[in-house]
Amino acid sequence: MTFQRARSEEQREIRRRAILETTSAMLDEMPVAEVTLNELSRRVGLAKTAVLRYFESREAVLLDLMDDRTATWLAELEQELADGVDSSRSAPERAEQMADVLSRSLAAQPVLCDLYGAQGGVLEHNVSVEAVRRHKRASLGNLAVMAALVRRHLPEVGDPAELFCLHALLIAGALSAYDSPPPSLLAVYESEPALAVHHVDLRTALRVAIITSLVGMLPRS
């Protein structure tokens, strides 16, 4: 892919989308930590300096991509919750069903979980005030959408739904780092099974964390 200099806002938006789509494809092959501007610029067919005309840094690209991927995932989650949570069940039963759906859905999004894992310690650094402001506004919008989905199927949660959603995403990011250990760790776990307690299955661990949070938010009968 090779581009000439963008001369209109429409052309600039095409370049931005191409950079985001190329970064997304890279993340299907490698973790966030291995994505570099040099490789991104090579794959998208732009000079590194040209990429920086559209995004101020590698981190800015990844933050925008995280916001986009979150919005896409939430659109899918809406149907998954509709199919997986039975409104005729009691609140504790619906909480369990929601934990099943959320843990399964998030575990099926390893790239998104990796992005959330890198958000606070990496991605929100080396970006300007305006870039962070834009990202946080997008994040708030996505949290509002997710919280509305939670309240639709489990209205008993009430106002704390936003906080629950934030914690669920951050926990998914933190746990994902332990889901796919490197070969050296796998060898240790195999040779000394007692140490394998540190080998986390993302979906299982997420379900425990989510159901614990949800049940704790339900009103006492």
From TrEMBL:
- Keyword terms of this UniProt record: DNA-binding
Which residues does the UniProt record annotate as the domain HTH tetR-type?
Answer: 13-73
Q: Which residues bind DNA?
A: 36-55
Pfam families in alphabetical order: TetR_C_34, TetR_N
Q: Which SUPFAM superfamilies match?
A: Homeodomain-like
What is the protein name stated in its UniProt record? TetR family transcriptional regulator
Q: Tell me which species this is from.
A: Micromonospora parva
